[in-house]
Amino acid sequence: MVDDITFHLADIVAHPFPGNENLYIEWLSAVVKSEHKTISSLTYIFCSDDYLLDINIKYLGHDYYTDIITFPYKEVSDLESDMYISIDRVKENAEEYNEIFETELRRVMVHGLLHLLGYGDKTDIEIQTMRQKEEEYLRLF
User: What is the CATH number of domain 5-140?
Assistant: First the structure.
């Protein structure tokens, strides 16, 4: 059975990994499986900075740019969520950290997934664990 993982474009023209959707689905599914969870439905929506800023203000009351916002609907063992990712922010972060775009995009995608899986990033220890998990799952790709 293939997990229900879909990718959509909100207000951008180009898909960030055209033709490779199945590769990303397999990777994200493997991440969830390795954490002993299942997927009900995951939707990644790729958008612009302005689109995500609008969501950040409207739903979270935050007036700043971010790379990802995750709306979890179920987080226990059967994950269901919409995740909005700003392609503009991913591109800028990739340049800032001297990383290739595809790697930075995967990092942001798995970061949101790790939050759904119960990982936080508020304390130093949580941040360290989050970074280790990101690296582990980037290697899995």
Answer: 3.40.390.30
